[in-house]
């Protein structure tokens, strides 16, 4: 079945453009212009994903993020607010991604596809993540390139596993540090930088131009699973 | 509280009264011999009590001796002599003297206790009046004035209350030493105290308070209990000064927070107001597919450029309004370069070649500000070099820190290097390339705010410009 996307946006023109873009991407669309309406639709029509504007007339869109994420809806915030604090707050509340206005519609669709793929490991494929020529086996805790077993230090593997389990999603620095190093090291970004550098050295074909582990400045990291390896987006 | 003079007068009056009563009783005893020994003895205790309660213990004891003598002279056989005939009377006189002494002591002690209670009541009245006035005081001067006046009333001395020794009127070197010592140790010193007893006054420093506070009590030190009380008052004044300072600080902080919130709100709404139409414009252009790409593509490129210029102006305004203070953390230049390239139009993206040396150290910077710096340098390189040439991005270790360079194959720079970074200033080749020069102003302003050094030079291997950012190896930025 074609996934249904709920678009929550109060500016009529942008709503129309978002609808057009999302339909062009091959999805079905439901729209809401207020927070109330959005919550109602989320319960009734259970969309797979939602694009949420933060500046809604009746409430701050940030209030919807957690509710929707708890309902299993992949949330992408689409907002004119561009500060790091806003982005981190939304991601920490469970948003899958954050797109700043004005956005590139192709970019938006790519993020939407990534957000769908992020839901896949839980729904089917089990613990195998294919990263180009490298296979990440989360159940066996092994990383294989062909038949070669790549060795990772425990923290490096921890970071890779966390990013892989949420592939396509931005995981904030604080989230990674909390999960892998423990809450006491939540602000020690340097640990994470060193670990990511080591992972890239082993995984990336060209560590100077990373393609797998991508950085969102000031926010966090995202593992980009190459699109060809995970099949079509519209057949889930 | 009665002052010293009225107290002395009171003492003289009660002593005089006691003497007169004693003499009258003696005269009466001589004239009416049948009055009765016991009655006479009891009546003679009256002046003893009067003297003791009004004039203190010594006066009471003196009167007791006098009363004993009068009793012996008037009532004991042989009368009108100081001799004692019967040995029993000796005992009577002894018992009488004892009773008189005890009476004098008790009366004096009671009087003292009463006096103390009166003084305490007076002290606490002064204290509470002072506290109330201190609460009402709005300036440091008022606080000092109120407290000094209260101290004068309480200690019966001339008082100066100051926040630094320089504010004290001139005094002898010993006085100054006492004052300094008292301040340094938050203690008291001076005349009548173990330390600096040769000074002319007593110096008491506040115990409480975050700023020094010193009182000078003219003359010798009062009783220790009085001194302790004076000290409590000084501490209260010190607390009042702290309260004033704190209130002023809270007010300043509130005002600052309010203006900051307003500034943030303004930037947020400017950002929103600029971005919303840009979103519509951009998405609208994207959806126009039926048009000739030769017409639509330049329009799209212009829309993007407009967007970037607005972004840059907003960032500059934020920095200038102190809204974007650097938030420095550990960073990998690989991330910075990757993110900046990702934000560029595809046409420029394809021309970029990245080389990052393996030993490039992590650097300390603000991720967002550095992102804007690198993004603008790359855009600048893309704008001012032919579309067929490549743009080199290098990162490597340098002097313990790191250097990031962006090299283009454009015309290079002329004499106008110094002006290149000025807001809206552009190089001599500006006619042939679009852009307003805001980008390099962002580079310059952000690099300054972060403490990174940006330099420009012409390439030596071929025509072209090198922009280099040097990151020092300091682990923390100022």
Shape annotation of chain A: globular
CATH superfamily of the largest domain in chain A: Response regulator
Overall mean confidence score, pLDDT of chain A: 86
User: What is the total number of structural domains of chain A?
Assistant: 2
Rounded to the nearest angstrom, the distance between the terminal CA atoms of chain A is 7 Å
- CATH classification, class level of the largest domain in chain B: Alpha Beta
Residue runs with pLDDT of under 50 for 5 or more positions of chain B = 428-436
User: What pattern of helices and strands is seen along the backbone of chain A?
Assistant: EHEHEHEHEHHEEEEHEHHEE
Sheet of most strands of chain B: 5 strands, mixed
Assigned CATH architecture of the largest domain in chain B: 2-Layer Sandwich
Number of strand elements of chain A? 12
Largest sheet of chain A: 5 strands, parallel
Which structural class best describes the helix and strand composition of chain A?
A: alpha/beta
Radius of gyration of chain B in whole Å, from Cα? 47 Å
* Helicity level of chain B: 55-70%
Question: What can you see in these coordinates?
Answer:
The complex is a heterodimer of chains A (236) and B (478). Chain A is α/β, with parallel strands linked by helices and 236 residues long. Chain A folds into 2 domains: 4-118, Response regulator (Rossmann fold); 125-230, Arc Repressor Mutant, subunit A. In chain A, 41% of the residues lie in helices and 21% in strands. Chain A is built from 9 helices and 12 strands. In chain A, the strands form 3 sheets. Chain A has a 5-stranded parallel sheet, sandwiched between helices. In chain A, strand 6 and strand 7 (134-137) form a beta hairpin. Chain B starts with a helix and ends in a 7-residue tail after the last strand. Mean pLDDT of chain B is 84; it is low at 428-436. Chain B is an alpha+beta fold and 478 residues long. The interface between A and B is large, with 36 and 38 residues.
